[in-house]
Amino acid sequence: MTESAYDLVVIGGGPGGYVGAIRAAQLGLKTACVESRGRLGGTCLNVGCIPSKALLHSSEKYEELVRGLAGHGVRATGVALDLPAMLQRKDKVVDDLTKGIEFLFKKNKVDYISGRGRIAGPGRVEVTLADGGSRSLDARNICIATGSESTPLPGVAIDEKRIVTSTGALALPFVPSHMVVIGAGYIGLEMGSVWRRLGAKVTVVEYLDRILPGMDGEIAKQFQRILTRQGMSFKLGTKVTGASHSGTRVMLDLAPAKGGDAETLEADVVLVAVGRRPYTEGLGLQAAGVALDEKGRVRTDERFATNVPGIHAIGDVIAGPMLAHKAEEEGVALAEILAGQAGHVNYETVPGIVYTWPEVATVGKTEEQLKDAGIAYKVGKFPFTANGRAKVNKTTDGFVKVLADAATDRILGVHIIGAAASEMIAEAAVIMEFGGSAEDLARTCHAHPTLTEAVKEAALAVDKRAIHM
């Protein structure tokens, strides 16, 4: 093969793209990854998952020091917020990890091409190089892994200073006196939590009559009660119809979603977090004949192939949850398929997590989904107030909920709200991957005292035999 001829060219260096490229190279495919940002890692690493978790963790420590340690017999005085240092730490974490991916590319012999890629025809990618000029790549296979971008809201113009997306919310140089978050999904609640902990008044405006659309309803209600107790305010069933600036203030025009009297809400920062949409601009998809669906996503089959031979797509740009780990699994699966193996993704075991305090983690079906599908099920629940380790740690908010098939006892869904829920959900995902039952989980020995005992107890509760409740 010539220098510019590849078995696989991946357009996009986010979690799906870079992981897929590495796996393809491991399997012996000559692979290149084209990324336009100038740094690998995509939205997730640069302006999404990683920096947001850095700020969530730092702000948790700040709030615990200011408000939470007295109950443990630790009294702190003279505590001060150093926001520039907090932001600098976040940036260093991002920088270290992006450089780490470049190292992994070199280790696995993936060619990293910095520039903007465009499909120029069957088996050909044209790259406008970041340092000038262009380069043409021949590819037996092309993978579109360009991710997603924030969905705009009509009437609300983003300037990333006073009206921001998650990108701007990760780099605010001051703590807002009042932040309004438009959208009560993962991103809005996480970033709202960061700035509330640091001293902002936070109001969440949501078009629907509930938070966390798509998550288990009982979990969402409990979560809203906890966030309200923490100081976050909610205006549900409310739509934003416009926004205007007046000096350093932003005036939002609101109206009831189902009709009624309008009102105005004033803030100094507004975060627009109403969702994300596939990013396909400038890829040349129309000229290449690649079909999109009604939501602007690239249409693919179960093997991630588009309607054009040799062109594939993964991650946020195709159907399914817009999650970094989902994209990673698809990248690995595609690489294995192209190498002649049996790549596969089980979408029933892809967890969804909100990294607030407490965390919310879910995998599998919700009660609402099971009811809509007419599936008979059993429920087992166990509160952290009855868990010894949670008592010791003073982290008793929340509960574990296990949903099992009424006839077979197979676990259909697990939902957790509580400390370390993001870690505990992996146990549920593993047992579901193997088609395990509530009985299997209940009879698995869990170390004592641990938070994960609540998972075991919830599984026991499916059969109404929880021990500690």
Give your account of this protein's structure.
By secondary structure, the protein is α/β, with parallel strands linked by helices. It is 33% helix and 26% strand. The strands form five sheets. A five-stranded mixed beta barrel has the order 1-2-3-4-5. Strands 7-14-8-9-10 form a five-stranded parallel β-sheet. The chain is globular and about 65 Å long. It is built from 14 helices and 21 strands. The protein has three domains: 5-55 and 84-150 and 277-345, FAD/NAD(P)-binding domain, CATH 3.50.50.60; 163-274, FAD/NAD(P)-binding domain (3-Layer(bba) Sandwich), CATH 3.50.50; 349-462, Enolase-like, domain 1, CATH 3.30.390.30. It has helices spanning 15-26, 42-47, 49-68, 83-108, 166-169, 186-197, 217-230, 285-288, 324-338, 367-373, 388-393, 421-433, 438-442, 453-462, and strands at residues 5-11, 31-35, 111-121, 124-129, 134-144, 148-150, 163-164, 178-182, 201-205, 233-235, 238-246, 249-256, 263-267, 269-272, 276-278, 311-313, 352-354, 359-364, 377-383, 399-405, 411-418. The mean pLDDT is 96.
In short:
This protein has helices spanning 15-26, 42-47, 49-68, 83-108, 166-169, 186-197, 217-230, 285-288, 324-338, 367-373, 388-393, 421-433, 438-442, 453-462, and strands spanning 5-11, 31-35, 111-121, 124-129, 134-144, 148-150, 163-164, 178-182, 201-205, 233-235, 238-246, 249-256, 263-267, 269-272, 276-278, 311-313, 352-354, 359-364, 377-383, 399-405, 411-418.
